């Protein structure tokens, strides 16, 4: 869950800060109020393309920071060598006027690819024509499994073990059939040669 957002020198935004509560957040307002810029800032902080056009005219760099609950991505954080601080992950993305970009997770520099992987599991932006994670079958299964709880994980693990065993039996059966076929062909060849 996204807990807060800070934006500095992004397009026409000098400074903006937003604290978010639990649940659904909807940003509304009149045309030109800056809603799209906030969405662009969030996308940038989640690993989106860093374009120097986002840097406010007359400034050296644009900066977007956000604090996110890290529980959904604890495994990715560990793989990236980032330790969540009290279950929170602080994302900092800076873009220079020359187009260079830096990314930090809890103060540690990381690659943009790591940020993209985290971002796809942390925040889902829904716009009028944007792709929605709810349409991905993998996401639907993950949401259902999470909603069901431990029972779903236990059953999923049992199915995985059964599938592995079935695949092993299928491979062995295929190897036996191939062996029998090879033996029969060899016997036919020997009978023909005698």
Structure description:
This protein is an alpha+beta fold and 194 residues long. It has two domains: 128 residues, Rossmann fold (3-Layer(aba) Sandwich); 59 residues. The protein has five helices and six strands. The protein has a six-stranded antiparallel β-sheet with strand order 2-1-3-4-5-6, covered by helices on one side. β5 and β6 form a beta hairpin. α4 crosses α5. The N and C termini lie far apart (78 Å). The model has no long low-confidence stretch (mean pLDDT 84).
Quaternary form: single chain
* Strand order in the largest sheet: 2-1-3-4-5-6
Question: Which segments are poorly predicted (pLDDT under 50) over 5 or more consecutive residues?
Answer: none
| Strand-pairing-aware structural class | alpha+beta
The CATH superfamily name of the largest domain is P-loop containing nucleotide triphosphate hydrolases
Most strands sheet? 6 strands, antiparallel
What are the salient characteristics of this protein?
single chain, 194 residues, alpha+beta, Rossmann fold, 6-stranded antiparallel β-sheet, 5 helices, 44% helix, 21% strand
What's the helix and strand layout?
Blueprint lengths: L1 E9 L2 E7 L15 H11 L15 E9 L4 H7 L7 E9 L4 E5 L2 E2 L2 H11 L14 H12 L1 H44 L1
Antiparallel strand pairs: 1-2, 1-3, 3-4, 4-5, 5-6
Helix pairs in contact: 4-5
Concise structural overview:
The protein has 194 residues and is an alpha+beta fold. It contains 5 helices and 6 strands.
